[in-house]
Write a structure and sequence with these properties.
The complex is a heterodimer of chains A (273) and B (410).
Chain A: H1 3-14, E1 18-24, H2 33-42, E2 48-51, H3 62-73, H4 78-91, E3 97-101, H5 103-109, H6 111-121, E4 125-128, H7 138-146, E5 149-150, E6 152-154, H8 160-169, E7 174-177, H9 190-203, E8 208-211, H10 217-226, E9 229-232, H11 234-241, H12 247-272
Parallel strand pairs in A: 1-2, 1-9, 2-3, 3-4, 4-5, 6-7, 7-8, 8-9
Chain B: H1 5-11, E1 23-24, E2 27-31, H2 37-51, H3 54-68, E3 74-76, H4 78-84, E4 88-93, H5 103-116, E5 121-126, H6 130-142, E6 145-151, H7 152-157, H8 159-167, E7 171-175, H9 182-195, E8 200-203, H10 213-221, H11 223-236, E9 242-246, H12 251-257, E10 267-275, H13 286-289, E11 291-295, E12 297-302, H14 327-334, E13 338-344, H15 345-359, H16 365-381, E14 386-391, H17 399-405
Parallel strand pairs in B: 4-14, 5-6, 5-8, 6-7, 9-10, 9-14, 10-13
Antiparallel strand pairs in B: 1-2, 2-12, 3-4, 11-12
Classes of the chains: A alpha/beta (273), B alpha/beta (410).
């Protein structure tokens, strides 16, 4: 059983929803990433999503674009990101790690070489924003051979027919993009999201996470009513952006925000239980 | 017996490319965030419906003739050819189109498609500003809202075009992320499209991007090659020995080349921006010095580092300053149907001056790259040969750049 599935099974029996924070590896500097990952886990993260910085992140808003630029200024490569996961695994064997990024670094490293190295480092899932299932080709096989879960986005524009194709290719969980837009946008319609997540649940036994636009503890709690997991990215990364140069404040603010989301989600779950 | 390259080329049925998913061999395809998959499918469906629709084609042809001024002349550059002392060089005068470049052919086609699809807002990216001006122009002509994304550095070096776009009613949005040039403008336009997907049509300016753009833009630009083929047959009674065009994304080149792909005797030469020289690393020549990868929705040759990050490019011409290239060019390179070479900033400047002084035509700096290569090629092919160069745009927009390079204050 994959670490991701094991984590969702355990949460399900406990009646809890997964909280999935995102940070960009190497932001604000490569030295802080592993410490931040551990901090996120202590603050209540169930899965850690680690962004692989890319020079041209077309699916991301300004906050994560700048995170990529900060990480790339330090030369953070896909190889460095895998080394960070390996280091994280020395102290944490249980928390799933999902890499989120764009196709080209994987393309250049080579599918098989990347998948083997990622699995060896302790990565559990891979989400490539600009790789739809139709273009997966050999990557599908390489991920499967390495025991890595391919995570796919489903968008508000995704047709019912494509939803099924995506569900058929996905493992681990499905990531529902809660709005039309890039990461860090700010218009959420909880009822519409709940309706789409419901449709996905009827198509697949996989858990469904929701992300994009979840910036506060309140929104995290609301969204956790509708989905199996809540993904938070830009709101956390903004805390990094606003405090570049002060690593201690960054760790405090990022983990503080995540902890507040955790308590809001758990309070909500307790209230409805 | 092993097949010769020529045999293999003749065996290729070029009309079958791209395939239904937009692939040219391993290149092309559709690598975009999930939110754009449905709109791209909608666009493909609409385009394939109108692609051969007589009513749509008639509307395009009417505007091409009455608004753009087509057909553009095929002009024999007699004095320049004689000065070089080699092949006879013909110039396909796309600089004489309305707005001064080939870009209008495609902007017109896509805007007419947007109108049929009921989209009221068009967006575009631009490097030198030629595609932005073309898009703003057709948007004004059709009464559409237009937003153009342009790298902040390009806005600096192409200010007359920025003013032109604003006069035409377009909003020009400076892009300050990344390298502040064309690739970042494309990123920002994609983000706009992801966000405003319901009412917005994205007019991509070159034969790159996700399927169906490389196909669609090529189709709208092949009017160049179709006319040139007829014109040269009429004027010279035979096909040319070679075609030459500059390649940034590669839309003017594919527009000229495509109608000649089946003519195996016609050599196709694409000319990339060599910047300060390929060895300097400061250039924009992915076909000459890059590797395949995935960027802006398609697999193609790219300028990238060892870990797949896209690297900064340099060219004297903003329109060629792009780290990728249309996927069909990548494929034509691999199957050896076309050859790709590069010329430096300095060589392009020499080409610029030569044609300006001997023919009375001020070419764009992009085009000047093709002209510089044509001069070498004309000597190689020698007297009796025929070359067609795509004179893809006029140079008015570049006067400031040329003055700066030569230390002249205007």
């Amino acid at each position: 059983m994959s670490r991701i599935q094991a984590r969702f099974d355990a949460l399900k029996s406990a009646g809890r929803r997964a909280l999935v924070p995102f940070i960009t590896a190497g932001d604000p500097n490569p030295g802080l990433t592993v410490q931040l990952m551990h901090g996120l886990v202590e603050a209540g993260a169930d899965i850690v999503e680690l962004g692989v910085p890319f020079s041209d992140p077309i699916g991301d808003g300004p906050v994560i674009q700048l995170a990529c630029e900060r990480a790339l200024k330090h030369g953070t490569s896909l190889g460095d990101v895998l080394a960070m996961v390996r280091e994280f695994r020395q102290r944490n064997r249980d928390t799933p790690v999902v890499l989120m990024g764009y196709m080209n670094p994987i393309e250049v490293m080579g599918y098989r070489r990347f998948c083997e190295a990622a699995a060896e480092a302790g990565v559990d899932g891979v989400l490539t924003v600009d790789m739809p299932p139709e273009e997966m080709g050999e990557l599908s096989e390489c991920l499967a051979d390495a025991g890595l879960d391919p995570i796919f986005l489903v968008a508000p524009t995704t047709t019912e027919q494509r939803m099924q194709v995506i569900c058929d290719h996905a493992r681990g969980f499905i990531y529902y993009v809660s709005l039309k837009g890039v990461t860090g946008s700010d218009t959420l319609d909880v009822a519409a999201v709940a309706e789409r997540v419901g449709r996905l649940h009827r198509m697949t036994g996989l858990p469904v996470g929701v992300g994009f636009g979840i910036s506060t503890a309140d929104k995290a709690a609301q969204m956790s009513q509708a989905a199996d997991a809540v993904v938070v990215g830009s709101a956390l990364v903004r805390q990094i952006q606003d405090n570049v140069g002060d690593d201690a404040v960054i760790v405090e603010n990022v983990t503080g925000l995540l902890a507040s989301m955790r308590s809001a989600m758990d309070a909500d779950a307790a209230a409805t239980a | 017996m092993a097949k010769t390259t020529e045999d293999m080329q003749q065996a290729v049925d070029y009309s079958k490319f791209p395939d239904s998913e937009g692939h040219f061999g391993v290149y092309g395809g559709r690598f975009v965030p999930e939110t754009l998959m449905a709109p791209l499918a909608e666009l493909s469906e609409a385009y394939l419906r109108y692609r051969n629709d007589p009513d749509f084609l008639r509307e395009f042809d009417t505007d091409a003739s009455q608004f753009v001024g087509r057909p553009s002349p095929l002009y024999y550059a007699e004095r320049w050819s004689e000065k070089i002392g080699g092949a006879r060089i013909y110039l396909k005068r796309e600089d004489l189109n309305h707005t001064g470049a080939h870009k209008i052919n495609n902007a017109l086609g896509q805007a007419l498609l947007a109108k049929r699809m009921g989209k009221k807002r068009v967006i575009a990216e631009t490097g030198a500003g030629q595609h932005g001006v073309a898009s703003a122009t057709v948007a004004a002509r059709l009464g559409m809202e237009c937003v153009v994304y342009m790298g902040a550095d390009d806005i600096q070096r192409q200010s007359p075009n920025v003013f032109r776009m604003r006069l035409l009613g377009a909003e020009v949005v400076p892009v300050t992320s990344g390298t502040r040039t064309l690739k970042d403008a494309l990123n920002e336009a994609m983000r706009d499209w992801v966000t405003n997907v319901d009412d917005t049509f994205y007019i991509i300016g070159t034969v790159a991007g996700p399927h169906p753009y490389p196909l669609m833009v090529r189709d709208f630009q092949t009017i160049i090659g179709r006319e040139a083929r007829e014109q040269i047959l009429e004027q010279e009674g035979r096909l040319p020995d070679a075609l030459v065009a500059c390649v940034g994304g590669g839309s003017n080149a594919i527009g000229l080349f495509h109608p000649f792909l089946n003519d195996a005797s016609v050599q196709l030469h694409g000319v990339e921006a060599g910047g300060y020289g390929i060895d300097s690393g400061k250039h924009a020549a992915p076909l000459c010095a890059g590797k395949p990868g995935v960027l802006h929705g398609n697999r193609t040759y790219l300028m990238e580092d060892d870990w797949g990050q896209i690297i900064g490019t340099h060219s004297i011409s903003a329109g060629l300053d792009y780290p990728g290239v249309g996927p069909e060019h990548s494929w034509l390179k691999d199957i050896k149907r076309a050859v790709y070479t590069s010329v430096t900033d300095d060589e392009a400047m020499q080409g610029f001056h030569a044609v300006t002084r001997t023919e009375g035509i001020i070419p764009a700096l992009e085009t000047s790259h093709a002209l510089a290569h044509a001069e070498k090629l004309a000597r190689e092919i020698g007297p009796g040969g025929i070359i067609i160069v795509n004179l893809s745009g006029r140079g008015d927009k570049d006067l400031q750049t040329v003055a700066n390079v030569e230390g002249i204050t205007l």
